[in-house]
UniProtKB/TrEMBL annotation, chains A, B:
Native species: Pleomorphomonas carboxyditropha
Source taxon at top rank: Bacteria
Protein name in UniProt: GntR family transcriptional regulator
Gene Ontology MF annotations: DNA binding; DNA-binding transcription factor activity
Transmembrane segments: none
PROSITE patterns linked to this entry: HTH_GNTR
Key words, A-Z: DNA-binding, Transcription, Transcription regulation
Length: 249, 249
C-alpha cells in the first residue's frame, strides 16, 4: 500500500500524494514536521524528481503542506475550519474544506457615506461615499463572524449584479477576478465587549467578549482597496496564525 | 539632501539608507508600498547594484522594509510596539524599538507538574513535570501581557542562572543560543473573559474581555519545545498580523 503501483492507471504523482496524505491524516507525519527531502522521496519510492515535485505542489495546493524555500516541505498546522490570519485569502474562500458548511447572509450592500475610520484607512476624504457590505457568516449553522467591508466606490462597483451580494460567491475571488488582488494586508486583533448589533447577530449578550479583527488589504501598487471590521466568535471558529522562521530570524 | 555625497566618509549604502528611511518615516513611501526596484535605485542614485542591495538588507534588518522574493521590497506595515504574530520572534525581543519601555516581572519559575493542556501540546505524558515560567510584561509602565510558558524539563534547564528568570533577558534569545531556535509556531487567538489571576495582574475586572494567545513553538526537527498562554490587553498593546500574498494566492 505504501509503494507505487507501476501498473495502475493512476499517475505516479497522485499515488505518492495519496500515500503522503494518508500519513499526514494519520498523524504519522505530524503538524509542523518536516517531510523527507525530495531526494529521499525519489529514492524511497523510486520516482523521478519531477514526479516528486508535482506531488509536493499538489499537496501544497490542497493546504496539507507548506514549502519553505531552501528549508523543505512541512506538514501544515491548520485544521479544517481554522481562519489563518497570515494568508491573504479569505476565511471562507479556501480555509474551510468540504467537511464544514458555511452560510453567508448579506444584510446590507450599497454606496453610503463611509465612517471616518474606514475613509481614513482607505485614504479617502472624510465623509466620502464608499461601498459597504455587511454579512453574517455561519459555520456548521452556528453564527461565527459578523463582518462589515468598506471599499472605494470603484471597487464596490465590480460587485454589482454578482452573487457576492446574495452571499453565494466569494468576495475575495470576485475582487481578484476584477483586478483587485491582495498583495499585502495588515490585520489587527483585539478582544472587545460585543456591541449591540454584532451581539444580536452572533447570539451573544451585549458586552460578552468577542474578537474584533480589523484588516486593510492593498493591491500590488500598495493602494488600499478593502477595509473590514469582523466580529468573530473565537469559541466557534478557531482563529490562528502560523509563524515560520525567515532566514536570519 | 536626496543625493549621494561622494566626498563624505559615510559609506554610500548608509547614505542611501538614510534617504530611504527618511522617506518612509515621512510617509512619502507609505506602509505596504513597493519601493523602487533595485535597477531604479541604481539609476536614480548612480550606485552599484551591490551597494543598493546592502542598503535594502540593512533596512530589512531594521524592520523598515520587507523583501519578498521575485516581488521586490515593501515598506513594512508595523509600528513601534506592535506585537506581530506571524513572525517567530518574541514580542519584546525585536518588535519594540527604543521608543517604548518594557518591564518584565517574573512571578514563578521552576519545575512543576504540567497542566494537561501543556503536556498534550508538548507531546509529554499526562502529569509529566515541566519548566513553568510566569511573567507580567508592562509596556510604558502599563500592564500589557500576562504569560505562562511551559517547556520540557531539558529546555527549562538551560534557563537556570540566566537573567531570563530575573526578567531582564529575552527568553527567545536565550533558548536560541542554547540550540532551541523556533522553526515554526502555531498561534491561536481568542477573546475570553479574564480569569481572576490574569485580571488582577492586568488591572482588569474579572470577566472583562481579554485576548488569549496560545502558541506552540517547534524546532527545525519539528519537535515542540515551548508552549505558552498569554493574556494580552489589546487596548494597551496592538496585536497584528501582516499577510503577504504568496505566489499563486
Amino acid at each position: 500500500m505504501d509503494a507505487i503501483n507501476r501498473t495502475s492507471a493512476e499517475p505516479y504523482y497522485q499515488q505518492l500524494g495519496r500515500i503522503l496524505e494518508q500519513r499526514i491524516k494519520s498523524k504519522e507525519l505530524s503538524p509542523g514536521q518536516r517531510l523527507p527531502s525530495e531526494s529521499d522521496l525519489c529514492r524511497t519510492f523510486d520516482l523521478s524528481r519531477s514526479t516528486v515535485r508535482e506531488t509536493l505542489r499538489s499537496l501544497q495546493e490542497q493546504g496539507l503542506i507548506r514549502m519553505i524555500p531552501r528549508r523543505g516541505a512541512f506538514v501544515a498546522e491548520r485544521n479544517s475550519g481554522d481562519w489563518m490570519l497570515q494568508v491573504t485569502r479569505g476565511f471562507f474562500e479556501s480555509e474551510v474544506d468540504g467537511t464544514r458548511t458555511v452560510d453567508t447572509t448579506v444584510f446590507r450592500s450599497g454606496l453610503e457615506p463611509l465612517p471616518r475610520e474606514a475613509s481614513d484607512a482607505l485614504g479617502l476624504e472624510p465623509g466620502a461615499a464608499g461601498f459597504i457590505l455587511e454579512r453574517l457568516r455561519c459555520l456548521d449553522g452556528k453564527p461565527a463572524v459578523y463582518s462589515t467591508n468598506f471599499m472605494p466606490p470603484e471597487v464596490g462597483a465590480v460587485l454589482a449584479g454578482t452573487d457576492v451580494l446574495r452571499g453565494t460567491q466569494s468576495l475575495n475571488q470576485t475582487l481578484r477576478a476584477a483586478g483587485y488582488q491582495i498583495s499585502s494586508a495588515r490585520r489587527e486583533v483585539a478582544a472587545v465587549g460585543a456591541p449591540e448589533l454584532p451581539a444580536r447577530f452572533l447570539g451573544l449578550d451585549v458586552r460578552d467578549p468577542v474578537l474584533l479583527i480589523r484588516s486593510l488589504s492593498r493591491g500590488a501598487d500598495g493602494r488600499p482597496f478593502d477595509y473590514y471590521r469582523s466580529y468573530a466568535r473565537s469559541d466557534v471558529v478557531t482563529i490562528a496564525v502560523e509563524a515560520q522562521a525567515m532566514d536570519g530570524d
